[in-house]
Amino acid sequence: MMESPQSASLSEEDLHEVWPVLSIDERLEGFRLLPPAAADDFFVGLSARDQAELILHLPPGERRTWVRVLPPDDLADLVQSVEPEHAEAILSQLDDASRREVNVLLAYAEDDAGGLMNPRFARVRPDMSIDEAIGYLRKQAREKVETVYYAYALDAGQNLLGVLSLRQLFQAAPDKKVADVMQRDVITVAENTDQEAVGQLFSEHGFMALPVLDEAGRMKGIVTVDDIVDVVQEEATEDIQKVGGMEALEAPYFEVGFFGMLKKRIGWLLVLFLGQMLTATAMSSFEDEIASAVVLSLFVPLIISSGGNSGSQTSTLIIRALALGEMKLKDWWRVARREALSGVVLGVVLGLVGLLRIVVWHTVSDAYGEHFLLLGCAVALSVLGVVTFGTLAGSMLPLVLRRFGFDPASASAPFVATLVDVSGVLIYFTVASMILRGTLL
Amino acid sequence: MMESPQSASLSEEDLHEVWPVLSIDERLEGFRLLPPAAADDFFVGLSARDQAELILHLPPGERRTWVRVLPPDDLADLVQSVEPEHAEAILSQLDDASRREVNVLLAYAEDDAGGLMNPRFARVRPDMSIDEAIGYLRKQAREKVETVYYAYALDAGQNLLGVLSLRQLFQAAPDKKVADVMQRDVITVAENTDQEAVGQLFSEHGFMALPVLDEAGRMKGIVTVDDIVDVVQEEATEDIQKVGGMEALEAPYFEVGFFGMLKKRIGWLLVLFLGQMLTATAMSSFEDEIASAVVLSLFVPLIISSGGNSGSQTSTLIIRALALGEMKLKDWWRVARREALSGVVLGVVLGLVGLLRIVVWHTVSDAYGEHFLLLGCAVALSVLGVVTFGTLAGSMLPLVLRRFGFDPASASAPFVATLVDVSGVLIYFTVASMILRGTLL
């Protein structure tokens, strides 16, 4: 694709487009064809995994250039994404000060605010004049501060006193003091705040950056919104994959190996398969009923899946509401009442449709014998029971998981469906036995 | 909770915490207890729906103050979220220039780049010196420019010539020209670019803002990353809800009314229920087989659900990969081969577990008669067939939907499960008939 030197004017966007399907050699070749400014942007925009792959395939001289393009938080991510034996090779390319910064960041968990933060932020002193502050920011930008949407006013002990947006700084009269203009009521996060919670805060407030404080109230760095886009994307991907009934992947689809992918999938499938075996056990205790009325068995898939579907729907709804913070654990009773009622209404509608189907089909084809109406009622009542149970179980399961410290998203659609299938068999045959005793049975 | 005037030092975070469960009167009361600077931040951070609700409950005098706090893109969202008769009441509070800006934005679709963009951005001329440019930006910040992470260099015809980050501006020598420092290779989006694609770009490149151009290449505004966090969150929520088998909600869980919620849920449940009726039809053509070997019916739920589970898993995986741009339509053949092979491997594993279960159970309880080994083989082979089919169907369905212009996320877990259930019944009984003819049948 890029054999001739004439195609040297490769654009950043073109390379992004084909990147996922290129081999590492093609990636290197393409990367070197980018104009210098575009190469910078392109490199910074890559995922940590891709940055690491490129860097480890570059000769040591070039390696140093690219390692130094990255801010400390991105470097920490990069180091975390490579094998331990390569980490040293990357860290050794840094100057002492940067290496120290990266080593501090490496001590944080990857998905904490500390692991996301950039220790280089713009600081001012509260007693500076606005003009002095702007001059001081220009100096910091020349040195190494990456992001300058906000300037943070710190005292000598690194305690955060206030914050100014660049806009406020630019708007203020030049001879005013920072302390006159800054906002003192600052929303902050702790070093060990989970990244999902940090994402919440950004999404609710629309910040560009949030300061990270240690336990003693000293400012350690900032988390910027551009990193949060990835966090939000990642957390959603994890939840969606779990909802689909598999373990979350750590890389894009085509970058996960064939057997790596199977490993992420087989676990839950096995658990669910073993769980579903209980349906066979449950049904076997009704073998006599089935033998005397084979027609009963025809509706088993319809009935259990109506419970499974309503349960999947509900659990997914609740999982997302929990992830977005729209719902708290303490709302469980409100949710239970609402979902139980929803389940009844949905169950009545589906049950009536089921009854109608049996009556119409029987009228057309005489398929269900003289007791078709009783059969229809048994099916309708079972659907009502199963849908109500499915909806209620699907709503409570994510809350129970969260309550005991597990990820609510593990209450996946297939998991809830399997749980409800087993109960569905029991509900159906119990209802049918009661209604049809003396007629069909 | 907030009855006494002593509690007047309510913080922004406290109010956020309780906001979802407050009535509108409590919300107003709480909002008025915030210190002025915090109230500003709080208001700007609210969703458009909540902003509209507050504003419409304020007396006209206060209303004007708060309407004018918002930048034009947020105002456009707010106006779009209220009933048409209230839109006028809000627009009339604006000065003429702002009203014109908002009206222009209202002409864009809400989920296009045009609908997300802010028409107020920081501009410089390419022939300005760096010092002049900084001075000019300070002037613009004082007037009305909301976001100043980047300054855009435009010619007289509003064509975009280049971009400078504030950091680059601050880093450059004061006497250099903007044209010397600016980056000319700028990534832009068109007015009608879909917000999901815009979100992709931000997530891939880590931008703080992207310029929006019209067809003639004139710059119309910028989309900023803080709005993108919400976009990414929203799109993920839509996908998750669809994957769970319901229509996407437009508001948080507790803000959707009971019947509004039912409406979003009953549609798919009915479609799936009608689809599942085909399982009853399919099974009825095997009534004779079931009558002569009731034991066959016991494994129906196990077999069809193993297909449904592997199908749900696969479709969810593919839906997310498509949404993240990890996979394109043209990769379909690569995906099909890979998933077919995965399906076979997963099917072999689950099938063997199924066979083992039947052999072990039979040895323990003598439950399945003399032909238990044949029965076990029939079940194992059916599981293999159903899982392979489920995996393949689950992978292709989202791609087919995308190909014909539908949302791939409509290939929800319950939808795929239902599709596979019907085929599962056919596969099972066909396989069983072949293997067991002359023995059990």
TrEMBL record, chains A, B:
Its main location: membrane. Residues 117-181, 182-238 form the CBS domain. It comes from the Bacteria. The chain crosses the membrane at residues 266-286, 298-319, 340-360, 372-401, 413-436. Gene3D superfamilies: CBS-domain (3.10.580.10), MgtE N-terminal domain-like (1.25.60.10), SLC41 divalent cation transporters, integral membrane domain (1.10.357.20). It is found in: Cell membrane; Membrane. InterPro entries: CBS_dom, CBS_dom_sf, Mg_transptr_MgtE_intracell_dom, MgtE_N_sf, MgtE_transporter, SLC41_membr_dom, SLC41_membr_dom_sf. SMART domains: CBS, MgtE_N. It is a multi-pass membrane protein. Keywords: CBS domain, Cell membrane, Magnesium, Membrane, Metal-binding, Transmembrane, Transmembrane helix, Transport. Homodimer. PANTHER family: MAGNESIUM TRANSPORTER MGTE. Acts as a magnesium transporter. NCBIfam families: mgtE. Belongs to the SLC41A transporter family. This is Magnesium transporter MgtE. It comes from Pyxidicoccus parkwayensis.
